[in-house]
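Good morning N.,

You mentioned wanting to compare the apo and holo forms, so I went ahead and generated the holo version with adenosine-5'-monophosphate-propyl ester. This is what I fed in:
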Amino acid sequence: MSENFDVKLDNKSHLPEYSYIDNTWMGRYEPAYRRFLDDPERFWSEIAHELDWIKPWDKVLEWNHPYAKWFTGAKLNITCNCLDRHVLGDRRNKVALIWRAENDLEERVMTYRQLHTQVMRFANALKNLGVKKGDKVCLYMPFVPEHVVAILGCARIGAVHTIVYGGFGADALNSRIRDSKAKIVITADVSYRRGKAIMLKSIVDEAITNAPSVEKVIVLRRSNLNVELIQEKEVDFYEIMEQAENYCEPEEMDSEDPLFILYTSGTTGTPKGVVHTCGGYMVGTYYTTKYVFDMRDTDVHWCTADPGWITGHSYIVYGPLATGATVLISETVPDYPDPGIWWKIIEDIGVTIFYTAPTSIRMFMKYGEEWAKKYNLDSLRVLGSVGEPLNPEAFEWYYRNIGKSKCPIIDTWWQTETGMHMIATLVGEKMKPGFAGKPIPGIIADVVDKDGNPVEPGIGGILVIKTPWPSMMRTIHNNDERYRQYWSGAGGYYTAGDLAVKDEEGYIMIIGRADDVIIVAGHNIGTAEVESALVAQEPVAEAAVIGKPDVLKGQSIKAFVTLRVGYEPGEQLKNDLIYNVRMSLGPIAMPSEIEFVDTLPKTRSGKIMRRVLKAKEMGLDPGDISTLDE
Ligand code: PRX
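and this is what came out, ligand included:
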């Protein structure tokens, strides 16, 4: 972790100028936070009591640093809270999902009753294929309603889903399937992006050639390409649905049984399989969806993420459905067919809560506010941001042009590992552009030095979470040692890997990562994976990648490469190396720049010093280089 540094805080703040929305469920921030501090377990148990449990818990929390168990002894099935309770209650015919195709020509609508039936049929279809509680199922799908059906179908029978973002390439998919030992892979013939079909099924074919755990591949055929299936091994999504019964009893899950594994990029080794469990994750995502977004029964919620990221898990699927919201899901990208598409959808559907990433906002700023002006955005009530710091310029643009100076901007800081929002400015509270906000009630966060001592306001330090929370990850799949590391630095607090600074009022600004994870357009890219995709290529001897500031994407990837003897640097070779990374990991992990160098800076023990490369690239002082090898 880096040493302290001074940060100039611009303490400009904002109150919503027009309507001052007051959060009605838990009340305002201060009293809610005090209520939490008075009795944390009671606080969480009151929230958990709003949900349906098959059997209530014996204890709210068992904390044995760094291991937490939440709602121990309780039995539940998360799908009962996302579906059954609405169907049995008064949301039976309420719209659960509205889907827009990427070409904006197709729309599908599903009520809670319809979604419930589809999920149960799919769950039965999985059972018919021999899938049992605890089995791992990998989803590599386009963003269509069947994706949500497949996720909840797994949860219904206690199968552990592991979703891989459909933009990843074959090698990235392969390493995740192998680490999770998935028995089933669910995919589709194609996904569409900017009008082009991407042959998902062929990527799966390649990814499973050396993944012996995979017994069956379920293929959703959505195009008219008539993709052929290999008998026995490959089955059609709707054929197996047709053969399945309508009703599926929910599997009785222990609160601490795993719900899913989601891979997140690291700086060393393979991606980390973050494990989330049923009870705590359900409570955390329900609470934050309802409180942080001030979700009401009339809301139409649109989170523009993909289910392949934690944002999609928590704030497209589980959280919003647990609150009984109408959820818009859309395959569209922000600028296709034109940069007005998202505003058009908001007008058409009447979206009230809109949650997106700073990188999209910056893209819209580039295209100009005219696109947003063409549409009526009056339905919007709450705007959210996630994935990277929302810089003050982007905040202002979002606030004025999309929120029309009446919608609060909820910047939410959290991670795959945290499962739910941790730091945010709640609806109705004073907003400070550039600051994510304060730890939400339920969370004790701080900025500390390397020994865990709080640093003064205005001084940068390590962002930590001091006490356990229900939706925290429980371990890293196959690597518990790596899990323990999260709780072993900075005085034994949970270290998030981010650097931050606090102001006098306790608002937290995220400065960036303390490690080598690069955030490109809001997506975590591990240096290790990109470097190994480069080194896997014959001409490359060694590679080091760094994140460079990028006005649109936040960061872009630059790779420094040394070549093996016999290979000459050149434009063609650069393009080949980039192309091969794209094919193996997918477009999001593609370096935008490659520089050939003779040597890479290393420590005496041989570790590449990326921060030296980064400092040099940006014309900055590399800091302490005493460990640099001559
Ligand atoms: O560096 C922080 C950044 O994204 C990291 C977590 O990435 P991931 O696990 O992929 O989850 C992204 C979606 C929750 C964090 O360690 N990050 C996330 N949200 C913010 C952020 N940085 C600044 N402000 C945010 N609101």
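The pocket of adenosine-5'-monophosphate-propyl ester is lined by residues 264, 310-311, 386-389, 411-416, 436, 496-498, 510, 513, 519, 524 (CB under 6 Å).

Happy to go through it together on a call whenever suits you.

Best,
F.
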